[in-house]
Amino acid sequence: MARSNPAYVHDGDPQDLGFGHNYHEKLPSTISAESFSKQPIQNGTTKDTAPAMSVSKPNKALRDKWGKDIEFLLSCIALSVGLGNVWRFPFTALENGGGAFVIPYLIVLLLVGRPIYYLEMLIGQFSSRGAIEVYDAAPAMRGIGYGQIYSTFIVMTYYASIMGITVRYLIASFGDPLPWGECRDSWNATCIDSSLAVNSAENTTEKKISSAELFFEVEVLNETPSLDDGIGTPNWKLVVCLLVPWTCICLILIKGIKSSGKASYFLAIFPYIVMLVLLIRACTLEGANKGMLYFIKPQWDRILEAKVWYAAVTQVFFSLTVCFGNVLMYSSYNRFSNNVYRDVTIVSILDTCTSLLAELIVFGVVGHLAHALNAPDIDKVVRGGPGLAFITYPDAIAKFKFWPQFFAIAFFLMLFVLGIGSNVGMATTIMTVVRDRFPHLRAWRVALVIAVIGYSVGIIYTTPGGQYLLDFLDFYGASFVALVLAVFEMLTFAWIYGVGRICRDIEFMLGIKTGLYWRLCWGFITPTMLTAILVYHIATYKPFTFNGYVFTSGMYAFGWCVFAVGVLQLPCWAVYAVLKRKEPSWKNRILSCFRPLHHWGPEDPELNAKYHESVYKYDQTVPVGRSLLRKMVDNVFQ
């Protein structure tokens, strides 16, 4: 088997920087360079006879593992299948060509999403390291991990705030009639009851606003028209509701991965039960077929627009949650021989199918809403982002004649569970980083501290200006940062650590060969597409606005500072890694920072010893003096 006797072919000269070198910073204590006896062979290189190796005890206890392999799979499903599938994908598709958007989305999924997802799963499982320690493979690039944790924290806090709003709606859903179904005198004179199946412009030329929209903006958010007077005072109802998701997250993580693995059965399966119920209901609504056909009808002229492809990439990132450290973290708790190839296939297919299923539900409900309002264009009744979940859906549900409370409760409970599943993954990523650094800390204490800090930060999103800050920080602190770091992540693993070495690690771990599709994607296609999208995003950059509101120059300066904190982690930690080295020359210091640390490899000491034995043995079989082009070709194809 490859695991017990892997056959490696070195794809980089020992003194090379990158291109899949197998040369570590120094030999581990169990091996000495002199212990290899070299024998000449015909091709002018040398052949080693590997020495007998002793196995040293690890410095710390072995990492916790999932109770069952299915818990890992379900946790990945709960992490990836979330709010992005329910509200972001349908509206993004509608904005970018309808059914035609599915084509670039699937292409990006195959050439960017799946390769990164598989790569992160492999590296995490192989090394049993979290989002920061995994860069023991190239210490100079450790800042990527810190930057991704920074972005994960930002996303985690505002995700929880959305869950707080969901709790507010879930409680309100028990009311009869639904509180957003009827207007209130204190709201607006131009309000129209959402429970009425009439056109808002039927009896007057004055534009009216649905009670569902006013309930969201006035009653729930108390949203301010601008930030000119500040963000305002937190809404005490949302502050209380925010306690619910953070309490759930803390309880789920109280025993670390062991307790979250058990919770994954419910977090991953329950939303599909509700989706099935909602799909059946959506298909039976009047006008639902019109809405579904509206989505399916493609706008072929949009398919070649660069904006559409950028939207596809960001949607894949948002949906699969790659390049945030979450997938790396979950897979680091796997058994060394777990079949991650199977898991990647299941999660990626299920994620795509869920997005398409959500689209059918969304546009079925929206089609019914357009039919009830006699709206000529369906896009006139669709709102994106939170508006889709908290305005369009409630507006349509308020018009249900049959059990509107039941469907409201089911929908918002599904949203809550989807959000909790994603948030548990993000909180676990941060917990793993902390416990990797301080292994003596108990899981419940770390979970409690994360919950308290996350809750405290999340209070800013409960203010009247909270939604402004949410979208603003998502743009500058999460999406933009994640895209930049994704490019460097692929550079690190594909060209510094090396595609060839990854493929040999796979053979060592799983005993399988890596196909040409994965090699080409990791080596060329995925990095090229990510770089092109990043360049396009920078070239077409426009200052971020929220519903037409232009922020002050001070806020934009703050936004760039938020962005800089995430991205500058990379050069700062690279400089630190170089300064920490003790080699006499600066050249050797720099080169050593791009090579794996001596303890890099499998967590198990016996497997680690076998891994190092194979690496050092076959390092000597590489011919020296290769051209740069030959090194690049060997890195991907050898």
Automatic annotation (TrEMBL):
GO CC annotation: plasma membrane
Membrane topology summary: Multi-pass membrane protein
A GO term, aspect molecular function: L-amino acid transmembrane transporter activity
Covalent S-S links between cysteines: 183-191
One annotated GO biological process: amino acid import across plasma membrane
Classification via InterPro entries: Na/ntran_symport, SNS_sf
Residues that hold Na(+) according to the record: 81, 85, 319, 418, 422
Keywords linked to the UniProt accession: Amino-acid transport, Disulfide bond, Glycoprotein, Ion transport, Membrane, Metal-binding, Sodium, Sodium transport, Symport, Transmembrane, Transmembrane helix, Transport
Subcellular location: Membrane
Record field: transmembrane: 70-87, 99-119, 149-171, 236-254, 266-288, 308-332, 344-366, 406-434, 446-463, 475-496, 516-537, 557-579
Role played: Unusual broad substrate spectrum amino acid:sodium cotransporter that promotes absorption of the D isomers of essential amino acids. Neutral amino acids are the preferred substrates, especially methionine and phenylalanine.
Family recorded in the similarity comment: Belongs to the sodium:neurotransmitter symporter (SNF) (TC 2.A.22) family.
Protein name, entry field: Transporter
Organism (species): Aedes aegypti
